[in-house]
Amino acid sequence: MHRCPAHGSRPPTLISIEFFPEQLAHFRPFCYFTNWLVKMTVTPPNRSQTERADHTRARILDAAIREFSENGLAGARTEQIAEAAGVNKALLYYYFSGKDALYAAALEAVAEGVQAASMAVLESEASAGERLLRLALNHFDRIHSNQAFQSLMQHEMIRLHRGEENALTPLSEKLFRPLWLRVQTLVEEGIAAGELIAVEWSQIIYAALGANVFYFLSAPVTRLSQGFDPLEKSALEFRRKAATEYLGQAIFIDRQLGARLAARVLAATPMPESSLLAVWGKKE
Question: DSSP code of 97?
Answer without folding.
Answer: S
